[in-house]
Amino acid sequence: MRLVAYQPDIAANLGAMIRICACMGVPLDVIEPCGFPLGTKTLRRAAMDYAMKAEILRHDDWTAFRRTQEGRLILLTTRGDVDLPALRLRPGDAIMVGRESAGVPGAVAGACDVRAALPMPGGGRSLNVAVAAGMALYEAMRQGAIASDHEAVGPLDAPRPLG
């Protein structure tokens, strides 16, 4: 399982995604160019010490990323064809989030294997990209696509007591 950030616009959001990936034990692919200078100082400020704990791979552009990408590429988008919790996630999947300002271009969306959405029963237009990434990775862990100390609970499983 991987998280992919397509040309992020906001350093603080990329910092949050780095922290999420470090905590979840998931590599992060950053497809450049970014909307801010992506350097050690920027990463250190945005991600604190988590930048040193996360596996971060930088790609010069979409083409460079595609040469290295394996497994299914799942685009997290408000225009998804399937709700993410209904999708059976697998360890080799990569979940991609788009730019905060514009998502991804049509050609990039068309190259993805799956376009998935997070349900928003409150009726909002969209979630912050880092929040959505964290929710998607948590769903992957819940389904067992990311190793966890806890037993996966599928959507049809009975609730478990907290104790």
Task: Jot down its keywords.
17% strand; Alpha/beta knot; 7-stranded parallel beta sheet; 31% helix; 7 strands; 163 residues; alpha/beta; disordered C terminus
Itemize the secondary structure elements and their pairings.
Blueprint: E1 2-6, H1 11-24, E2 28-31, H2 40-47, E3 56-59, H3 62-68, E4 73-76, E5 82-83, E6 94-97, H4 106-111, E7 114-117, H5 129-143
Parallel strand pairs: 1-2, 1-6, 2-3, 4-6, 4-7, 5-7
Helix pairs in contact: 1-2, 1-5
Walk me through what this model shows.
The chain is 31% helix and 17% strand. α1 (11-24) crosses α2. The chain has a single domain (2-143), classed as SPOUT methyltransferase, trefoil knot domain (Alpha/beta knot, 3-Layer(aba) Sandwich), CATH 3.40.1280. With 163 residues, the protein is an alpha/beta fold. It contains five helices and seven strands, in the order βαβαβαβββαβα.
Count of the domains: 1
**How much helix is in the residues?**
25-40%
Structural class: alpha/beta
Mean model confidence by pLDDT: 88
Main sheet record: 7 strands, parallel
Q: What is the terminal separation in angstroms?
A: 29 Å
- Enumerate the spans where pLDDT stays under 50 for 5 or more consecutive residues: 152-163
- What is the number of helical segments per DSSP (H or I, 4+ residues)? 5
Strand order of the largest sheet: 3-2-1-6-4-7-5
Number of strands: 7
Q: In the CATH hierarchy, what is the superfamily?
A: SPOUT methyltransferase, trefoil knot domain
Please write the CATH class name.
Alpha Beta
